[in-house]
Amino acid sequence: MKQHDTDIIIAGGGLAGATLALALSRSLPQLRVTVVETFPLSPDALPDSYQPSYDARSTALAWGSRLIFEELGLWQRLAEHATPIRHIHVSDRGHFGATRLNAADHQQEALGYVADNRWMGLCLMRELLQTNVVWQAPAEVTDMQPIADGVRVTLGADDGERQLTAQCLVVADGGRSGLREKLGFRVNEQAYNQHALIANVSTSQSHNYTAYERFTDAGPMALLPHGSPTRAGNTAALVWTLDSEALDELLALSDDDKCQRLQQRFGWRLGRFARIGECSHYPLTLKTVDESVRPGVVLVGNAAHALHPVAGQGFNLALRGLMVLVEQLRLATGQQQPLGSLSVLKAYQNRHRQDWQQTVRFSDSLIQLFGTNLPLVTGARDAGLMGLDLLPGAKRWFARQAMGLGGRRAEIRTPGTTATERSSDE
Predict the structure, then answer these.
(1) Hey, which bits of 295-389 come out as E strands?
(2) What range does the domain containing 308 cover?
(3) pTM (2 decimals)?
(4) What domain count does the chain have?
(5) Contacts of 261 (CB under 8 A, 6+ apart)
(6) Strand 58-62 vs strand 82-85: parallel, antiparallel, or unpaired?
(7) What is the dihedral of CA 317, 318, 320, 323, to 10 degrees?
(8) Is 351 helix (H, G, I), strand (E, B) or coil?
(9) pLDDT in tens, 69-94
(10) Considering the domain boundaries, does residue 197 fall inside one?
(11) Is residue 243 part of a domain?
(12) 270-309, pLDDT tens digit by residue?
């Protein structure tokens, strides 16, 4: 096999790219992994202690994602600032349908967790500094050409361009990067004609570790428990779906008026909304790539599929896909196959396809089902929510989707262990 400058180049060192780099270092320490990122990795940038910010953006981690981070040896540190979700309450505003999920009913300490993005990034960086992963930063991948048994990647940096050869390029720089399109991947887009407003809020009543999913005639909203992992506080992470006109109107309001508007839409289950933090927003579009691989290149994370945040499954789906990719690369290494060969990457795509298709359908169907106010449809979905609350089998299925255990996932294995795959149904 031809010698390259490195084995794997990961374009993007965010949560997906950094997690993949760590997983590869755990499972395949003999591989040379290079991460290309616009922000430098430096021990000086890592604080001695983490102080959560009120306005910190966060991510919902399913129970299945916790299991993956445990296998990576990262969960113990992550858990220091990960708020558990012990209850999920799903309701349809103005209608009688509702369903409730409780972790204790499934013999788990939590259904999922909420962790600040910055905290997850710091935990990953600390671990990566202890590995042989090479960090090319600040730099970005600007182009790629296929070569024998691999790719030649062009890196753009402040000091000019340079090139690296590798067996495989992994595009992990998110759904808004232009690298995916520049490389010629065809993206399917379905605009929801809505925006997601993200902010942290304070309420007069404790969240009691409950995540609320509230469907309204103007779009879904979610409130996730946020703050201390050991004390049920009064801070929640808000994801509020709005159309363009409503978003512009809301952003023009004072913070007090924003809280009042939120009160009208969500109700009083958490008491009075007392404070809303810094608001950010982005347009909602379902993006998928049917063929996310080609010789020497594979898309992962939001570069391969970007979902509506209604079910909180985007990063969890990406994480499961990363583990499947690592397992496929491990098998290829054992069989001395080129890591960027189309047969290897196609095998990864086929193994991950059912999971991402099922997760996309699950998330998109919620939007379609709760996005109409036709009497027959509203009656059916209210009956469905009540049915979930009354039928153990249906409720168990719904809980497994929420916990990120609906599909299969590959295990991370350290050298010397056998190749097996565990079903989430075990």
Answers:
(1) 297-299, 305-306
(2) 8-189+285-402
(3) 0.86
(4) 1
(5) 250, 253
(6) unpaired
(7) 170
(8) helix
(9) 999 999 999 999 999 999 988 877 65
(10) no
(11) no
(12) 999 999 999 999 988 888 898 999 999 999 998 998 876 6
